[in-house]
Specification:
The chain is mostly helical. It has one domain (about 1-160). About 65% of the residues lie in helices and about 5% in strands. The chain is built from seven helices and two strands; from the N terminus they run ααααββααα. It has helices at about 1-25, 30-40, 40-50, 60-65, 90-105, 110-130, 135-160; strands at about 70-75, 85. A two-stranded antiparallel ribbon has the order 1-2. Helix 2 (about 30-40) packs antiparallel against helix 7 (about 135-160). The relative contact order is 0.13.
Length: about 160
């Protein structure tokens, strides 16, 4: 059993090494410059690149956000109007974890945009604190912060990667 665990760790190490080479290859340099500002780690970068490359496919911000799990789909019937989440649950989860582990902890992002994201998280947190309690509070803060960060990410990627 111990040997299997060690072998799995070695296998994971080799996969991460290969992933590092792929993500930091020259064709993704402009993307990585933007990702650095947002404080994305290896797995977040891998997920983002696998979902949004090439960026030219996304004419609208809505399509971009939908691809990353932050889109909305209308599900209405008669007088009842509802909206449901649409897009990749995997991407939504990875972005939630980024917000929870990097943004919500505070002072981990050093770039100008990173500071703005942290400030936005604090602003959202202060607005929601009196009305929402418990685990729902953290989930809602993170979801709203990620939605704002994705708008800014789309803007910055278009500026930096489409020339």
């Amino acid at each position: 059993m111990a040997l299997e665990i060690c072998n799995n760790h070695l296998f994971e190490f080799h996969i991460r090494e290969e992933l590092l080479q792929l993500i930091f290859s020259p064709e993704f340099t402009q993307y990585n410059l933007v990702f650095d500002d947002y404080g994305f780690g290896l797995m977040s970068r891998a997920m983002l690149l696998s979902r949004i490359y090439p960026l030219e496919r996304f004419v609208t911000q809505g399509a971009f956000k939908r691809r990353l799990g932050y889109g909305q789909e209308e599900r209405s019937s008669g007088d009842v109007q509802k909206f449901a989440k649409s897009g990749s649950k995997l991407a939504r989860t990875e972005l939630y974890l980024w917000c929870y582990s990097v943004v919500a902890k505070g002072n981990k992002l050093t770039s100008e945009i990173g500071k703005q994201i942290e400030a936005k998280y604090q602003e959202i947190s202060e607005k929601l604190r009196p009305t929402v309690k418990g685990a729902k509070f953290a989930k809602l803060c993170n979801a709203r912060t990620v939605a704002v960060a994705l708008r800014w990410l789309y803007r910055d990627l278009r500026r930096n990667c489409l020339k």
